[in-house]
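tmp note - Phage late control D family protein
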Amino acid sequence: MPIAAVRLTLDDGTDLAAAVDPRLTELTLTETRGEEADQLSFTLQNADGLLAMPGSGRRLSLALGWRVGGADALPGLVDKGSYVVDEVRASGPPDQITITARSADLARTYRQRRTRSWTDTTLGSVLGQIASEHGGTARVESTLATRAITAIEQEGKSDMAFVRDLGRRYDAIATWKAGVLLFLPAGGGASASGTPLAGTVITRQQGSQWEFSSADREKSDGVQAQWHDAEAGRRRTVSVGGSTNRRRLPRVYATQAEARQAAEAALSRDARTAWRFTYSLAVADPGLQPDMRVTLQGWSSLIDGIRWTLAKVETSYGPGGLVQRIELDGAAG
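out:
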């Protein structure tokens, strides 16, 4: 019988497992495909008042998995990366300490509003500068890194919001993993290192609660985006996709190329997220990670026939063992 296990290590090499395991009441790791950093949170009982835990800014390394493998399909401990502590809360009764950490130090400057602009540059250069300013590096997929940017403004937005907007504009994963700002094509099935992710099969027998839904999008079949034609002194429109019921993006872009890029990204995102599926796995697989391709088996011909991609993985460790809740985005098969 496999036994759920967790390993927490401080940045100085201190292994917290012996101190944490007897006190651990709950641990949750939330991994997402984009927009914000992954988040680790855990709660420790402190009835004796003797617990001393790392303060903000300390780094924790996490591994989750199984101490004893009872089935070939179950992995051992899987490295889930490092996280920076940005919140420590004490509460009671019963006395306990709750710690929140993220996969990048986003607590301060990354969330501060600022105004600036870039001209005659590339997307890779913009993201590289932002990552460097926050003590990290950027890993941008090659076709995205070379995208030309004539002019772009970050007006009254935090770097976090600006990077999120860029991710939506280019239909890309835009997130931090272990001090690296990743910018990869969404739905491309690539890991943080850029190598292809292996797909996986998930069956109805592996869990309990599930929910399937359709993102109707009000039956839109195309997308419109506006841009400002400086020479003519007027707004113009570019359209992609079908023409029966196009939806219009709210922003006005600086150039025709930027407007077309945004419209194509929105159309691609609509197609990739036409369906949503959530599922609670009774036995967690720590090897699951966002943007992994998933084949569902055991539901219906419609559900099983959709091309699914992992959008979010929430892994919890506690009295119930190691369990997961996953969210998948789906496109037509």
